[in-house]
Amino acid sequence: MASVSRANSSGSKLQLYSYFRSSCAWRVRIALNLKGLDYEYKAVNLLKGEQFSPEFSKLNPLNYVPVLVDEDIVIADSLAIILYLEEKYPQNPLLPKDLHKRAINFQAANIVCANIQPFLKLAVMNYIEEKINTDEKLVWAQYHIGRGFAALEKLLKDFSGKYATGDEVFLSEFPLLSKLHEAYEKLPAFCAAMPDVQPDALKP
Amino acid sequence: MAVLLRCCLTKISMASDSTAVSTEIALGRTKLQLYSFCRSSCSWRVRIALNLKGLKYEYKAVDIYKGEQFSPEFSKLNPLGFVPVLVDDDVVISDSFAIILYLEEKYPEHPLLPRDLQKRAINFQVANIVCSSIQPYQNIGVLSYIEEKVNYDEQFSWVRHHIGKGFTALEKLLKGFAGRYATGDEVFLADLFLAPQIHAAVQRFNLDLSEFPLLCRLSKAYDELPAFCAAMPEMQPDAVKL
Hints:
The structure holds two protein chains of two kinds.
Chain A: E1 14-18, H1 23-34, E2 39-43, H2 54-59, E3 67-70, E4 73-76, H3 78-88, H4 99-116, H5 122-131, H6 134-156, H7 178-185, H8 188-191
Parallel strand pairs in A: 1-2
Antiparallel strand pairs in A: 1-3, 3-4
Helix pairs in contact in A: 1-3, 4-6, 5-6
Chain B: H1 2-15, H2 18-26, E1 32-36, H3 41-52, E2 57-61, H4 72-77, E3 85-88, E4 91-94, H5 96-106, H6 117-134, H7 140-149, H8 154-174, H9 189-203, H10 213-222, H11 226-229
Parallel strand pairs in B: 1-2
Antiparallel strand pairs in B: 1-3, 3-4
Helix pairs in contact in B: 3-5, 3-9, 6-8, 6-9, 7-8, 9-10
């Protein structure tokens, strides 16, 4: 995995608790790569329930990845982590200077976080299957993704350049819109963050 | 009753600021517009933020029950068809989180985020727990779907499950950080997201808050704050029509 070794201010490495397939962890991996921050990858196997281990529960009593450890600071939640990284390590900014464009980035991030991804969580999909039926899972997922993607297409229509809100990569790059997918595949920082190149990808 | 009386007094005192509004317009400070539904907890968060920052705004009611969020005019403002939407001159922003962070940067008086980076992160985490792990599951559209596909009672089991899970997480998260308010002795971002969510859980879904002592205590603290009271659903111009 390519990474530029640049540790945090005291020289010690950041730690990222991550699961290779977690899209929330994936966002943080991209952010770390874009900022050239080296980190120790700490795999948490969600399928094996490792997020409920005593050790991990002590770090994050909410039992989800990703979690970032920066010396004595421990932060969970991808958005909280990324905004922390943005303030602590300002190199390669992930937010544009213009206030309106910043807002568009937050909006796009929250369309994914609050309007798409919550409906695709494993527990929710299992609920739909159990209470309705298996076929309904796909209908449900496609509905929420389609609605969110349609909104993103409209939202970003007047702002996108090479990337979602201009010609530089900003926070809202995380949603996988088809019209941006090709551009992302050319970026080393994004490629290095993909699930199948993570250390725990070898152990599904 | 005492809460509502305090709120009424707050409304009267805020209404008497109309001369201040005229002065602002005369000085070239265009009034902000907020597209809002009185009962929308997302709109409620932004109303609290505007009140805390002392920002006057024009209330533009969008009746969710009548489907006004799907009108062509409103869809142009927010393609997702949700409130709130803030209009600040030629800047149009939807999504409560995006709006509040915009207000925080554009109008820095009465900051809504602490300076300490760990505490800032906790505030963002709380906001995102509410935004992503609780509130999406109590949207009218989702509840109607559950009612249609399963049955009437199931929508309440569903929403209480998600609120309960989220509130349990919040109690754990805030244990080491809460003071008078969620992350200390000053009101910050987390409180703006918690107040409407706690209210909805109790008033709309009859959740028993006794299992969540910290959130129960915070809820009472918010009832004492004029900026929070003035943002309550029953104090909004469109509350009269319901």
